[in-house]
Design goal:
Blueprint: H1 2-13, H2 18-25, E1 35-45, E2 48-55, E3 67-74, E4 77-84, E5 96-101, H3 107-115, E6 121-124, E7 141-146, H4 150-159, E8 166-172, H5 181-189, E9 194-199, H6 200-203, H7 208-214, E10 222-226, H8 229-241, E11 248-251, E12 261-268, E13 273-279, H9 283-289, E14 307-317, E15 323-326, E16 332-335, E17 339-347
Parallel strand pairs: 7-8, 7-10, 8-9, 10-11, 12-17
Antiparallel strand pairs: 1-2, 1-6, 2-5, 3-4, 3-6, 12-13, 14-15, 14-16, 14-17
Bound molecules: flavin-adenine dinucleotide (FAD) and FE2/S2 (inorganic) cluster.
FE2/S2 (inorganic) cluster (FES) binds near residues 298, 304 and 335.
């Protein structure tokens, strides 16, 4: 009976579906694609803000340290980006929050921080990510963060009050640029964490040797690190050399590009666009630059939101240099956010 009523409703409402009307009236209802409504944009620093979002009823919750993919229209184009969740799990209003730092020329980060208004509806994915504390909490923890890398760690600090011995080493250009600066200093004043702030404008960049000096019992601590790729690589090398590689967990906001090569001509069969791409630029970036509307998500090879079939040609994985080739009709799936053209290639999009 229900199916027949729905069929009838579909006939009456064509070309829109009944669900399209329901989406207009109640975009957060369960059963709809997961969406969220931005309830508030709270400035944190001159270029960072916390975005409070009321998720749709099918939101399944998250573990502190995880991230959520957010789809938002910027200049009429739907863009997807990943943001770490910073909210308290126990919020009584049921909202979640992410904290975004606007980067120079960043499409989505500037839009969210400077131009988004409460009431905006965004698309969401369920939370995901492995950058979380283990079920058995470490007796001693060290967090090393820089810039917006504080966000997943703030999510953990706000929710894991049971951590007894925490050192946080955080670096930002100046004291005023420290996102959550007041809250972190208050946690330190309460004795919940030992906070080591490094302001790079006066102190210079944070390096692994300096951290080892600042935290003498580093070898006894499980360490979580999040920040620029260069900082994470230096920490990973230092921890590995000290035989502590398995006690360091890092979260990257961008992929590590290891290998580049010759580019080529990329054509998008269904879209009809053809462009020249160099061997160092992800096909996703090159296509968006040329105005092609592309599926995307984390933009760093972990969510598979950007996968498209390669009909013919060759692409190189920028993380390891591996070349994937497709003969006509093969339709091999490639992650466009970490793949660059390696000669001519034809993508089914
Ligand atoms: C798992 C995960 C969690 C994340 N969590 C957060 C978070 O909590 N808060 C937050 O602010 N960001 C976070 N990010 C980064 C975020 O997803 C976007 O990459 C960032 O907001 C930039 O997007 P944009 O559209 O503004 O920049 P784009 O328009 O995509 O890029 C503009 C320019 O900046 C460069 N660029 C892109 N991303 C970065 C970056 N992260 N750092 C420096 N240069 C960059 C690009 O190469 C390009 O040249 C996370 C990323 C991942 C993968
Ligand atoms: S956008 Fe996430 S894997 Fe490519």
């Amino acid at each position: 009976m229900r199916d027949r009523v729905l069929k009838l409703a579909e006939l009456i409402t064509t070309p829109l579906l009944p669900s399209d009307y329901l989406d207009l009236v109640d975009p957060l209802r369960s059963g709809a694609d997961l969406r969220g409504r931005i309830e508030a944009v709270l400035p944190e620093t001159r270029d960072a803000a916390t975005i409070v979002i009321r998720p749709g009823r099918s939101w399944k919750g998250h573990t502190p340290g995880q991230y959520v993919r957010i789809g938002i229209d910027v200049d009429g184009v739907r863009q997807w980006r990943a943001y770490s969740l910073t909210s308290h799990l126990g919020r009584t209003d049921g909202c979640i929050a992410v904290t975004v730092k606007a980067i120079p020329d960043g499409k989505v980060s500037n839009h969210l921080v400077h131009r988004t208004k409460p009431g905006t509806i965004v698309q969401l994915d369920q939370a995901t990510g492995e950058f979380v504390l283990p079920a058995e909490r470490p007796a001693k923890a060290l967090f090393v963060t820089a810039g917006s890398g504080i966000t997943p760690v703030m999510g953990m600090l706000r929710n894991h009050r049971e951590l007894a011995d925490v050192v946080l080493v955080h670096s930002a250009p100046t004291r005023d640029d420290v996102v959550f600066g007041d809250e972190l200093r208050a946690l330190a004043a309460d004795g919940r964490i030992r906070l080591i702030e490094r302001h790079t404008d006066v102190d210079g960049m944070l390096d692994a040797a300096a951290i080892a000096e600042l935290v003498p019992d580093l070898a006894e601590r499980a360490t979580w690190a999040c920040g620029p790729v260069g900082m994470l690589e230096a920490l990973e090398a230092h921890w590995a050399a000290a035989g502590l590689g398995d006690r360091l967990y890092s979260e990257r906001f961008r992929p590590t590009v290891l290998v580049t090569g010759e580019g080529g001509t990329v054509s998008f069969t269904r879209n009809g666009t053809t462009l020249e791409a160099d061997g160092a630029t992800p096909i996703l970036d090159a296509a968006e630059e040329a105005g092609v509307l592309m599926p995307s998500g984390c933009r760093m090879g972990i969510c598979y939101g950007c996968v498209l079939p390669l009909r013919e040609g060759a692409v190189r994985d920028l993380r390891n240099g591996e070349v994937t080739t497709a003969a006509p009709g093969d339709g091999v799936l490639i992650q466009t956010c970490v793949s660059a053209a390696a000669g001519a290639c034809d993508i089914d999009h």
